[in-house]
């Protein structure tokens, strides 16, 4: 089965599955590239406030996608021995140790009006707005720690390809190997990629990467081969605490907004969403995050911009410059001739 | 828990999302701490001080759940006049026999009635009980009348009632002592007390989760006992959201104690018989069973087991082949077995899914023992160190062993993984979940079931026709399981059916209540009876939670009788009404005259709350309608343990075997009953402690642990590239302060030394390890994940080269969670120089064969 077999019936029948610069700003990236009837845009919402750093996402991803093992390097970066996203790591869990207050639940709150048995009937699917307390609200009465330090905070966050609305990697791909799927995600086709490497500097997040021994570009496919079969991506499936949530992007955004509001209400002022805003420099991410600190803390660019955004104006400038050069050359020629 | 049980931790996160407060008490700041509301770092090995001080707080501040305590615990029971507390004897209980380092526990009994334990060491009073029951001659010892009723004082005022003994025993466990001994500031400690007590009572319950951080100590059982006392005082047992949850070390370790791989247990926690003169089945049952409660039915459970094993050969005339069971003559724990290997008494050894050359206490002793065997069979997924020590073990490098000179013949047999065979897992909740073979095992890999069945089949074939009596137990075994496929894999379902049991007509049983002591029933494990009720594999049920009640009784099957919460009669008050609507689980329906509720009631279904037994009642009938702990001889939760424990009826703080500190509470430094003396060996030297000369050579405290990324001794993870790369090397974790003190550099090397070994590790400097102020001085702790050895993709020294064989006397488990050591910058010496450094340390500390082995 080829990847294309998952494509919906396309009324045009010959739509170029690859996106183009022309799709910039679309809320429906799949529709914008010509899919007619297509499923809703699917995405990841990674809520780092409940990530326990088990790395099950990394392993599940490698198992499902047959991603090769990476180097056996002890990095010394806390428990992160993966280092970052790359051709051989499509999920990466960052570990950040901070001498900052632990995000703690406020205790001493009365739960007498909470019917736990009724809640239990919901199984594991407590909607965030019904969760009476949050995992990360700071207590008001912080007890002293043995050494007089402030409490520690250990941030963990699973990073992944952002599946940008405006995906520069896809814009620059000359072969059509990178394409926009009917789910609105961005996928590299390993049998088409010729290893030109244009996509690598184009990614504003440094996600896509060339594999050393074969030269082709690799990255998260959001388990494209699972989505078509109605299965969630391997990482989301493996995540024990639902830190990685998969679903229609609209729903995820709602869920994330509610979660953020809960955290803010509880006084976790640092909590923020990253990549959720459709008006940001990449038109919003298909995989976005709830962070507890500045993006830079997690190794994420604070204000990513699709690297092909300025291409049209750049080309205009190039045209002008070329025209000017040509004019200058002509002028020089003419001048030279005259001076003879 | 997030570190070692990330999948189970999802439920902690779920509870947290619903408002639960999570408190994490651990020397290190771990992935669990990162999710907790409160992290309490404390000195490894000081937990009884910490927990004992909470007990003291609960008692002295009247924070206990009085109605629950009076009705459901033994708080009111009056203890023998002969009992003496560590308060009186400077850290010892009455009855200590210094010569044999054992307790005579008779003085711990109730006044007026001698009870038997429902678990643990039940043979302690064999002679009294067997002799007395058999009506033969005079009873030995001073034990009181066996039958009758113990005196109680429901006002809890009698000076010898358990409640008052408890108060007195724990009075010196104060917040100041916690600060001095654990390094926990009083304000932080007060916060823990407050959170816990505020969240316990009629309307609220708290749960304790622990793992081997509690069990791997010379006082490990007493750590857990302290938690049990707390939970009983707070009314947190038998109720939803309460309990003490043992997070086991492997999948189905619960299953391997239920249907045990332990030397001293038969299936369903029936004790393995010890050797006693003239012991027949009746004497055994009389001695090991209880008078009241369900253990009085031990005869039905044992007879059904014997009938299951020996089938038609087991008859009333031959005591149902009771004499076929081997008899114990002492401890045959894994560590005692190593001693016997070294002594040349144990010449053959099977290792099934265990890697002692890396994972057991004092790994060197394990290898020395194996090197003295004639043959060794290792069944595992990969070539683990226990199969390769003769080739690449540390002793080869130091020159202590030469491969060519080793006499042990080592057989490696590849084992099938759980995905390659049918069977069940039993988790810590006592829930059996069936798993199906997804793929055939590769190559010659076979399941353990296949191995055991065919090994037995071949041995039986070799013995066929033997007239030697000693071969009868093997030849008479019921050993006919249907097999499937080309490899003749035995049917795991058939084994489950045997475990479930059958009636005289061969029909599957549905409850242990059906078991008889007349030989008419067969059952391979009485607590599992019903797992195949109606001939259906109940453990294979997978009805999603959303399609059933919140108790989810149709997901898998939990022993006993599919009860999800044990002793749940305690979820209702003495009159049978829920303590609160919020915490309703099981209650008495007066109209229907029966117990009902969300869970299967753990109580005789029609025994009314106002039922009171006749004086001559026995067994379950002898317990009243308000005795929820139906396995206990008195139906109560034991705050004070009158029988069953070898090292005392109450938890008492003793320092770890090797500790940089004196015991701040008593003159008695270490657990006097710990097992250390029989394990003396040049490779198992102990260290001076506290203020003893030479103790300063080992100034730091180390603790071993696991990381999420690896599996115990590494056999299932270091061989897998995807896992090995996540934690690719052995490292130690130290605080910035210790790094500065010892010149350790991030990612540099450190050499760590104890009296047993010298290892090296890469250094991870982290704030997650914090110095503590203990006994007025700064104390540093070193974190040592213990996954590594010389084989696999990810290699390194084994932390267990440092640990000792010094054991908890109840469980025979090693103390690897707290030990004193030294750390220095740089790599360890190679070759014989490694031993020279060890010997230099031993010399500097003045270590002899006797060091640390005092009472």
UniProtKB/TrEMBL annotation, chain A:
GO CC, alphabetical: cell envelope
Keyword Repeat: yes
Family matches, as PROSITE patterns: 4FE4S_FER_1, 4FE4S_FER_2
Alphabetical GO biological process terms: cellular respiration; formate oxidation
Record: residues binding [4Fe-4S] cluster 1: 51, 54, 57, 239
Sequence ranges of Pro residues compositional bias: 135-146
Entry keyword annotation includes Metal-binding: yes
Positions bound to [4Fe-4S] cluster 2: 61, 220, 223, 235
GO molecular-function terms, A-Z: 4 iron, 4 sulfur cluster binding; metal ion binding
Pfam annotation, one family: Fer4_4
PANTHER family in alphabetical order: FORMATE DEHYDROGENASE, NITRATE-INDUCIBLE, IRON-SULFUR SUBUNIT
Name of the protein this chain belongs to: Ferredoxin
Species of the source: Actinocatenispora comari
